[in-house]
Amino acid sequence: MDKREQIIEIATKLFSERGYENTALSLVCEKANVSKGLISHHFKSKDGLLREIFLKTTQLIVEINRVDKENQTPSEQLIELLDSLFSKLASDKLFFQFNLNVMVQPNTRKVLDDLIKERSSFILKKTKEIFDKIDIENSLVMSHMFIAELDGISLNYLGIYEDFPLEQIKKEIIKKYALQ
Amino acid sequence: MDKREQIIEIATKLFSERGYENTALSLVCEKANVSKGLISHHFKSKDGLLREIFLKTTQLIVEINRVDKENQTPSEQLIELLDSLFSKLASDKLFFQFNLNVMVQPNTRKVLDDLIKERSSFILKKTKEIFDKIDIENSLVMSHMFIAELDGISLNYLGIYEDFPLEQIKKEIIKKYALQ
Amino acid sequence: MDKREQIIEIATKLFSERGYENTALSLVCEKANVSKGLISHHFKSKDGLLREIFLKTTQLIVEINRVDKENQTPSEQLIELLDSLFSKLASDKLFFQFNLNVMVQPNTRKVLDDLIKERSSFILKKTKEIFDKIDIENSLVMSHMFIAELDGISLNYLGIYEDFPLEQIKKEIIKKYALQ
Amino acid sequence: MDKREQIIEIATKLFSERGYENTALSLVCEKANVSKGLISHHFKSKDGLLREIFLKTTQLIVEINRVDKENQTPSEQLIELLDSLFSKLASDKLFFQFNLNVMVQPNTRKVLDDLIKERSSFILKKTKEIFDKIDIENSLVMSHMFIAELDGISLNYLGIYEDFPLEQIKKEIIKKYALQ
DNA sequence: GATGAATGAGTATTCATTCAT
DNA sequence: AATGAATGAATACTCATTCAT
To answer: Which residues bind DNA (chains A, B, C, D) (predicted)?
Structure first.
């Protein structure tokens, strides 16, 4: 059993559920069955642990975009992307909760600044690539709107409206973007 | 000079800039030139102060929606709404920062639960009213999408992309929703 | 009972006996019957408390030098000064222990830098004044030697030689400096 | 490259510069490119390492006193001793810094108690031997004064006065003690 | 001899809250 | 309404030491 991995796993869960600032390292230690010193040893500080976790979620996002799309039309690619995104949104709320959380909180935002910039420019680039293939006009602005809309859906679904009509919105989004 | 009002003003600014959890009441006291006891006296607790502030921002949102629209077409109303929203987004970032912040943070989310629900259902209702007047099909789902898109734009503009093309996106949004 | 004063008193004693770095604030709190927060409240930090204490000991030194010497010859002044110094050295070891301690420890030395410089230049000035009155040649260098010798005596008496012949050395010193 | 020796060298430097209590073994390990376990292995504990270092500095002091003085008069011996001492004081401040440090700090004082006593009685004996040869009256007390004065000079030169007139004081000391 | 993961007690500091005045 | 001394629980972090490899 790798204790380092265990810390990351537990901390990810707790940071997502309770928020970064509201999660004491002592709680992480307790739940992960690990001493306080070990976090210092492996991650140097709480912020260091946060960065490690954020990096891991970025890798996950990168992987979602790396699926082999050789024999798909751009529209099919977009549909698949939306499909996997909406699936994950429904199945793994905490993943999105965590990411929203740390990007909005001024404190964590600062700690993760470079990593957030790196990730978000990657997402923008990938989106624009698809839009360019589909030959959408004004692809940069449209990519920004596309990303914003999906982020807004996450935000409203996760944090604001209890009866958010996720499924129907998914259909509308696919209709709007992929079936042009 | 009303000290109660001064506390609210300073606290709003600090909570917005630094996040709720990362703002010590002692800092609020110092900046507002006020003793610690006075916050307890007026607001009972830090959470109480937060609720008071959130209520005030809700009132502001309500006011934006209350502008007299008697002699406007629904489309004109929508355009004006979008206009004032994008203006405020550019001029008063902290206002949106604060609201995003407290809605995404699990802790504050819990404290404000009832107020958030009240506000968001108000916003949904108002949006749907306009969409119904415009006679948009599937108005509930479309209202959700509309709100989500605007929230997503705030999120991306404020917290993620440094060179977010706000102006162009505003034009696209108006084109999309109001000029049908 | 003034708790602020109580903290200073207890801390002075403990810092002297155990050294600054080896004295936990929790120990000070326990002995002074005071909560941990109160030290923060009054002194901001452990270093702040140290500076306060060092300032107080400086005041004591200043007072020793302020005794009315109107109707004394310079030699009589010097004898009286030596007398009170040697008395205090024998009766209040901790006082000297503390001062040696914080001036030699790199950490505390840094924290107290400005205060140490201020104090030591005061002592040098006062010594030189007397030496000038006695009309001693090369008074600046001789003042330095005088101060160094007394500091060295403290150091050896307090910290090194268990059977240090303090009384006889006092006589020799008086013979050497005051009876020229 | 002998790692044991390397640890001693680095630790001596760091203890001197930063003080014993303020120097973490992890820092020593890092600077010496050595694992934590190795210090335990070689020196058992941090205190063990300190004792080893103190012993080494004692040996250095012994060597200074062992220089062949067969064909020198006692006065010449004393001058040479003072000369080498003042040279070292100017060239190797850290050496004296370290020794002052550990003798004044209650914690380290306790750990090194036996070694300090041994060393200081050696120094006293050696000094008294020379003074006896010169036929100085009251040689024990005078030896104590001599040692104290030199210690005081170190203390004031290293830790208190930035513009301490070391060279002139050296001349005065030689005049006073060696040219009688 | 040498490593480094792991421990756990200990440290200064923070902070919302209480309460006498 | 207003102050600020006082509390005490909580927090991130430090660090010497142990031990399996």
So the answer is: 24-43
Q: Which two tokens stand for residue A101?
A: 């959380």
Measuring alpha carbon to C1', the residue closest to nucleotide E1 is D38
Tell me if B149 and A149 make a contact (CB, 8 A cut-off): yes
With respect to residue C31, please indicate whether it lies within any of the assigned structural domains: no
Taking CA atoms, A76 is separated from A72, A124, A134, B112, C85, in Å, by 6, 19, 10, 41, 92
Contact call for residues A61 and A26 (beta carbons, < 8 A): no
* Cα gap D61→D96, rounded to integer Å: 11
Q: Is the dihedral of CA C36, C37, C39, C40 positive or negative?
A: positive
d(CA A131, CA C85): 87
Name the maximum alpha-carbon separation found in chain A: 56
With respect to residue A100, please indicate whether it lies within any of the assigned structural domains. Answer: yes
Give the whole-angstrom CA distance, residue D7 versus residue D98.
16
Render pLDDT for D107-121 as a digit per residue (tens, 0 to 9): 999 999 999 999 999
Instruction: Residue C117: list chain D partners with CB under 8 A.
Output: 162
Torsion region of B72: left, alpha or beta (phi above 0 gives left; psi -120 to 50 gives alpha): beta
In a domain, B121, yes or no: yes
- C115 CB less than 7 Å from any atom of strand F: no
Nearest to C17 among D106, D140, D152 (CB): D106
- List Cβ<8 Å contacts ≥24 apart for B41-49: B42/B4, B42/B7, B43/B7, B47/B111, B49/B7, B49/B8, B49/B11, B49/B25
Q: Which of residues 26-55 of C touch strand E (CB under 7 A)?
A: 26, 36-37, 39-41, 44-47
Provide Rg for chain B, Cα atoms: 18
Sign of CA dihedral A12, A14, A20, A26: negative
Q: How many domains does chain B have?
A: 1
Structural domain for B70, as ranges: 48-178
- A57-74 pLDDT, tens per residue? 999 999 888 766 667 888
Three-class secondary structure of residue A35 per DSSP: coil
Interface of D with C (CB under 8 A): 17-19, 21-22, 97, 100-101, 103-107, 109, 116-117, 120, 124, 138, 140-142, 144-145, 147-153, 155-156, 159-162, 164-165, 168-169, 172-173
Q: Which two tokens stand for residue A42?
A: 């492996």
Mean predicted confidence (pLDDT) in B117-123: 97
Residue D119 maps to which CATH number? 1.10.357.10
Q: Which two tokens stand for residue C180?
A: 């020229």
- Exposed / middle / buried, residue C26 (Cβ in 10 Å: 0-12, 13-18, 19+): exposed
| B24 part of a folded domain | no
Contacts of B142 in chain A (CB under 8 A): 172
Look over chain B and give the mean of its residue pLDDT values, rounded to a whole number: 93
